[in-house]
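About this split. The held-out portion is used to measure sequence recovery: a designer receives only the structure tokens and must propose an amino acid at every position. Recovery is the fraction of positions where the proposal matches the reference. Here is one held-out target exactly as it appears in the evaluation file.
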């Protein structure tokens, strides 16, 4: 199925980072995610081609073909910290915000959303502690 055939909700479900493209244009990808991009753009007077272009650029920027096995361990540790740890630290609050909104809006009809929120919060806390341990203990050991 191509992007043209997918709903906004399907696109965001495949890769939540695409939500930033829809947010940029003020397009609701949650409660009104069952629409096509063209349907969402029409009432706002937005050219759908702009969104398709932004989504394509987003995918191209995020595709990577790097041979990490050839990197020295100290460089790899720096890369993990700078790219992946910072990414998690930056995106976790955004995901929390989305989860809070979804639970607030739909939680009465879907109480399991509150459990999803709680489980995500626990996981995010555990992951944060794990990353700090890597940054303070493991990565310095590797570099040494």
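Reference sequence for scoring:
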């Amino acid at each position: 199925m191509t992007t043209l055939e997918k709903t906004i909700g399907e696109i965001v479900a495949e890769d939540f980072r695409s939500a930033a493209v829809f947010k940029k244009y003020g397009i609701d990808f949650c409660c009104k995610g069952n629409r096509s991009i063209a349907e969402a753009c029409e009432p706002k007077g937005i050219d759908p081609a702009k969104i398709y272009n932004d989504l394509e650029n987003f995918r191209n920027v995020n595709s990577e073909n790097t041979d990490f096995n050839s990197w020295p361990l100290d460089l790899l540790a720096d890369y993990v910290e700078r790219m992946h740890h910072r990414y998690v630290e930056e995106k976790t609050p955004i995901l929390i915000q989305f989860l809070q909104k979804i639970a607030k809006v739909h939680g009465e009809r879907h109480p399991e959303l509150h459990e999803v929120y709680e489980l995500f919060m626990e996981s995010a806390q555990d992951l944060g502690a794990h990353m700090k341990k890597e940054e303070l203990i493991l990565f310095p050991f590797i570099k040494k």
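Annotator remark: The longest helix spans residues 73-106.
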